[in-house]
Protein: Flagellar P-ring protein
Organism: Gemmobacter aquatilis
Amino acid sequence: MIRLVLLLLFLPVAALASPIRIKDLVEFDGVRGNDLVGYGLVVGLNGTGDGIRNTPYTEEIMSNLLERLGVNVTGEDFRPKNVAAVFVTATLPPFARSGGRIDVTISAIGDAKSLLGGTLVMTPLNGADGQIYAVAQGTIIAGGVLAEGDAARVVQGVPTAGVIPSGARVEREVEFDFTTVSALRLALRQPDFTTASRIEDAINREFGRTIALMQDAGTVTLDVSRARMASPAHVLGRLENILVEPETRARVVVDQRSGTIVMGSDVRISRVAVAQGNLTLRVEEAPVVVQPNPFSAGETVVVPRSTAGIDKAPGTGLAEIAEGTNLSNIVAGLNALGVAPHDMIDILKSINAAGALHAEFLVQ
């Protein structure tokens, strides 16, 4: 209950926060990363690699690698346990240049038990167009721990996945001439007509002329030529730090697994009355074994013995939640019921079903 109260009480403070920079509210059209993926081999594992019989593709890629290095293994029977086949993924950031470094993520695809201490062998990373944009290699940093013996095994975290910071070198650049761009689009991360209108007004006010135009709730277009600056990069460098106060929808988010409830500052509740209580049905079985007397030639029997009862926990009675003019009133009204977070979720669901919760209700 303490965690719920703290979550809700801190929200009004967040609602009064300073305006946000435009660069934190939008994505610039054309300024985006590209996903890369590769298939490689991790070596140097301490007997925790793939079982070759269960994952024959590991043996195939290892044979191909050794053949490229001049080692002929045709017809050879090898069963190493210190190698594992993996997928390598990365994101090529915008404006990445040849020779730059990017982080990569390594994930086992076979039955390897752990990648801890392994080394990724040189692996090309392909883009969606099939071209090679980077090459990855290096020692893996795995976040999990694996310990096992003959009769017990303990696993903490995910030892079959890890990362290599700056583990890939960029070999090919994405062809994009940013200097020839005459128009740009700003895509809002959270589409909203009010926020888009405020971004338009703030940009035009900063440049002293109309260069921005709101197209819809999620798009604001820029006429770069009207900005009268040296290049589109100069335009973005000037406007991305302009402060705008975003508008958000009234929203209630609940996580049923953890019992977390988060409310926005614009949430409103109509006047309602709520009663809450718990009813527990309890059935206990305590069978009794009855033994026959000595030398009586009787049989041992089991006599069933059951106890049933209904326990009714004290509820809150019928409590009234006044119409919420602000978040503080709603929090005070809900906390007055004195229920646990999971029960609070059920109450909010019922209030929403009654049409008294004026907000978007999201259950995760």
Notes: Residues 1-17 have pLDDT under 50 and may be disordered. The chain has three domains: 20-30+177-244, 34-170, 251-279+314-363. The first helix runs from residue 2 to 15.
